[in-house]
């Protein structure tokens, strides 16, 4: 599904990821953890193709066996990659319906799309008032994260990366989001990026990866989470 080979990434002159190699398999759920500044969000943005992040010439990113290293954001998105941002953007004058109409490029008629949005919004406890607003304007942390999850649910990507989807949400919103994501993750590759384990109280990962100083220093099953909670990252 997703394979990164010798992935080294810099911002300006600062090297953030160093020769990172890993294969993320289809139909598996991964958790990427690490201390602040370890490169977690850089990894997510690099996979999505953010132009701010400079990839070394020998680094490679493969998605479904296709080399997407040079693909721009738009082409990666249409290939089936979705990134939920740590800090979701606000878009003045654009509703989530209007945004998804543009992204889907007419693949769904307006009435069907609106019905699908409303059905999923009900499941995620998103009010009609929030749907009618400009995207994320005046929204709480929980509302913003729910809107990110709604977009993922409508777009149905093959690979979804959720960057700190559990940050800034209350316990009720977290339970609602987690309940939907347990259903959503079927037949997809999911990567949850987090520096704590709140969402992992509700979603069981297949693999836990620890990123530190730009390197994956350890991977393991869910038992690794218990070790991190007791000992911290410094003991690895």
Automatic annotation (TrEMBL):
Residues 2-236 form the ABC transporter domain. Keywords: ATP-binding, Nucleotide-binding. InterPro entries: AAA+_ATPase, ABC_transporter-like_ATP-bd, FeS-cluster_ATPase_SufC, P-loop_NTPase. Signal peptide: none annotated. One of its GO terms (molecular function) is ATP binding. Coiled coil: none annotated. Pfam families: ABC_tran. It comes from the Bacteria. Belongs to the ABC transporter superfamily. Ycf16 family. NCBIfam families: sufC (TIGR01978). This is Fe-S cluster assembly ATPase SufC. It comes from Candidatus Roizmanbacteria bacterium RIFOXYD1_FULL_38_12.
């Amino acid at each position: 599904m997703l394979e990164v080979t010798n992935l080294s990434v810099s911002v300006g002159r600062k090297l953030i990821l160093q020769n990172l190699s890993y294969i993320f398999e289809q139909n598996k759920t991964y958790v990427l953890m690490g201390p602040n500044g370890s490169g977690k969000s850089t990894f997510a943005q690099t996979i999505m193709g953010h132009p701010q992040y400079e990839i070394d010439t020998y680094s490679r990113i493969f998605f479904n066996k296709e080399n997407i290293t040079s693909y721009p954001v738009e082409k990666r998105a249409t290939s089936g990659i979705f990134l939920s941002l740590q800090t979701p953007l606000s878009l003045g004058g654009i509703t989530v319906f209007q945004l998804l109409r543009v992204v889907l490029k007419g693949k769904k008629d307006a009435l069907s799309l609106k019905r699908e949005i409303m059905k999923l919004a009900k499941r995620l406890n998103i009010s009609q008032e929030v749907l009618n607003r400009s995207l994320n304007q005046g929204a709480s942390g929980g509302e913003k994260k729910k809107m990110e999850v709604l977009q993922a649910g409508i777009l149905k990507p093959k690979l979804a990366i959720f960057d700190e989807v559990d940050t800034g949400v209350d316990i009720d919103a977290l339970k609602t989001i987690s309940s939907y994501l347990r259903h959503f993750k079927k037949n997809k590759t999911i990567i949850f990026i987090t520096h704590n384990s709140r969402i992992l109280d509700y979603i069981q990962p297949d693999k836990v990866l620890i990123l530190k100083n730009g390197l994956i220093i350890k991977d393991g099953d869910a038992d690794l989470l218990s070790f991190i909670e007791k000992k911290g990252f410094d003991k690895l």
